[in-house]
Amino acid sequence: PHAVVVAGARPNFIKVKPVLDALAADGVRTTLVHTGQHYDDAMSGVFFADLGLRPPDHHLEAGSGSHAVQTAAVMTAFEPLLGRLAPDVVVVVGDVNSTLACALVAAKANIRVAHVEAGLRSGDRTMPEEINRIVTDRLSDLLFAPSPEGVDHLLAEGARPETVHLVGNVMVDTLLACRERARARSTLADLGLQAGEYGLVTLHRPGNVDDPAVLDGLLAALGKVATRCRLVFPVHPRTASRLAGRLPDGVRPLGPLGYLDCVALQMAARLVLTDSGGVQEESTALGVPCLTLRENTERPITVTEGTNRVVGCSPAAVVAAAFEWLDEPPPPRCPALWDGKAGERISSVLVRSLDGRSRG
Ligand code: UD1
Ligand code: UDP
């Protein structure tokens, strides 16, 4: 069998690695397609190096643009390539525009679509990712959910039960595989940080950083938190263009980090403040207290069975929650099936279903 595996943006590279490895171990031929949604070395190249990800077999060079422009650029470049490759399945991960674009092209080419990280729902359709999740899941023939509530959402939306598989979390597979390499790095020393005495901030959701009033409120809150715990803030390119040097005292900006440096900073942080999906999951898997600066999460298991708390974006609520958790951090705990074997489970389901098809 032949699987085309698609990656386009920072979190995708981290998610495809365990899937590619497991498929290779099971004797499945894979073709890795990079859509080019993210292209800076700090948003793409460094992840290939840090993860030992093989170079993409094809690069679509879609680049940045509005949602329609970017999605269309991926689709237009992917369609003829897919026609030439004629794989048995296209594997897409996560919820970015590249995920939706390639799922849509494959579905219309009558090629099976497998979605890794299926069934996540924030219930908030103002998030572009929520639209991408809903449509990608609807188009997919194989739905790989990281946690039980993902299965519930898919079944409630009418997915056929035999297409839905609870497999665990591929982001956590990569985290566990890289944890010791991250721990061995000199990241903290290089930045003059001590374990347990700083907080880590990441912010890039359009709802938080594109509206100056919301961003200013969050920055003011971070400034207050920094009076009790200094903060480091690796800045996403979307956010960089909005910050314009407005960071409060005690909040130190960094460029976007490579994966191993980011994990090294997360695992030794006293507190994480984020609007990232992946960082909510990683902090739970690492047992590090996490405050999610959003009104909702598509990853509620990090709250019910992890170390995450969804605090919203009101500055007073952020500061109050941060002070509370600096005084009394939540106990570490980690969801079942977040055990480093999600990629293997995905591969075994894929192999079974592709074998069944070629026989049948
Ligand atoms: C995208 C995803 C988001 C994901 C995030 C991960 C969508 C709709 N959004 O958001 O779900 O959480 O990636 O990081 O797919 N830019 C650069 N260099 C790059 C890439 C982007 O400078 O290598 C800048 C460009 O100005 C671009 C902007 O960042 O316009 C936004 O990039 P884009 O991929 O459209 O969305 P993200 O905010 O990165
Ligand atoms: N990450 C990173 N460098 C950074 C910020 C995040 O390597 O400067 C990693 C983070 O550890 C996680 C992933 O990128 O593995 C999350 O990606 P991001 O927050 O961009 O996207 P999301 O998960 O919100 O879609």
Q: How would you summarize this macromolecular structure in one to three sentences?
A:
By secondary structure, this protein is an alpha/beta fold. It has helices at 10-25, 41-51, 67-85, 97-108, 128-139, 148-156, 170-183, 187-191, 206-209, 212-226, 237-243, 259-267, 277-286, 301-304, 315-327, 342-359, and strands at residues 2-7, 29-34, 58-59, 89-93, 112-116, 142-145, 164-166, 198-202, 230-234, 251-254, 271-274, 290-292, 308-310. Uridine-diphosphate-N-acetylglucosamine binds at residues 9-11, 37-40, 43, 64, 70, 95-97, 128-129, 204, 236-238.
What does this molecule look like?
The protein is α/β, with parallel strands linked by helices and 360 residues long. 49% of the residues lie in helices and 15% in strands. The chain has helices at residues 10-25, 41-51, 67-85, 97-108, 128-139, 148-156, 170-183, 187-191, 206-209, 212-226, 237-243, 259-267, 277-286, 301-304, 315-327, 342-359, and strands at 2-7, 29-34, 58-59, 89-93, 112-116, 142-145, 164-166, 198-202, 230-234, 251-254, 271-274, 290-292, 308-310. The strands form two sheets. Strands 3-2-1-4-5-6-7 form a seven-stranded parallel β-sheet, sandwiched between helices. The protein has a six-stranded parallel β-sheet with strand order 10-9-8-11-12-13, sandwiched between helices. Strand 6 (142-145), helix 6 and strand 7 (164-166) form a beta-alpha-beta unit. Uridine-diphosphate-N-acetylglucosamine (UD1) binds next to helix 1, helix 5 and helix 11. Uridine-5'-diphosphate binds next to helix 1, helix 12 and helix 13.
